[in-house]
Amino acid sequence: MGAWAAFASQASGWDDLFPGVDVRLVTLKLNFFIPFFDLFLTFMGVCDASKESCDAILHNRSSLAIVLGGAKEALDAHAGDVVLFLAERKGFVKVALSNGASLVPVFGFGENDLYFQGQLSDSFKKEYNKGLDLQFQYFEGVEYFNIILAYFLNEFRLILSLGNLLSVPNYRPKK
């Protein structure tokens, strides 16, 4: 949600803070196979996160925003707690090295508080999702007019923090 607010919409005031910096949010290629959702993503300027797509975006002098995380992080997502498996997420560094692109760490505090997760036990979720690259979550939403709407966000503050620019040398491995 934080990446969406910061890079795919104008909610964070990104264009005011960094005028002229064109940022493309990238997501799983699988999201582009969902009917109508693919059109929405394309309309918002979101691209798929394949290496080829990332290389093309950086070659065209645009920046890209990559959300680190996946099924493991989603399994351990609990309100007030954040678990990241960064040691297993190195692809974005390889893309930056091969394109000489700088890295800017961005973190959204409070993202796990935006949704109430369902009461399925953690052991059940881990067993159900074993071997999958996807994480199927059950969310409980906010109640309006005596109807529980699962995809309305809870009223929590989301704080986006931007780190310092990390310059990366241009390194193309020999083939």
Short description:
With 175 residues, this protein is of the alpha/beta class. The protein has helices at 2-8, 14-17, 37-43, 51-59, 71-75, 91-99, 122-128, and strands at residues 23-27, 47-48, 63-66, 106-109, 116-117, 139-140, 142-144, 147-149, 159-162.
Describe the structure.
The protein has 175 residues and is an alpha/beta fold. The protein has one domain. Helix content is 27%, strand content 17%. Strand 7 and strand 8 (147-149) form a beta hairpin. The radius of gyration is 18 Å and the shape is globular. The termini are far apart. The model has no long low-confidence stretch (mean pLDDT 77).
Q: What distance separates the N and C termini?
A: 38 Å
Q: Quick one: biggest sheet? A: 3 strands, parallel
Number of helices: 7
Assembly type of the chains comes to single chain
SSE string, helices as H and strands as E: HHEHEHEHHEEHEEEE
- Please state how the strands of the largest beta sheet are arranged side by side: 2-1-3
Helix content: 25-40%
Radius of gyration: 18 Å
Indicate the overall shape. Answer: globular
Q: Say how many strands there are.
A: 9
Mean pLDDT: 77
How many structurally independent domains? Answer: 1
Kindly name the structural category: alpha/beta
Strand content: 15-25%
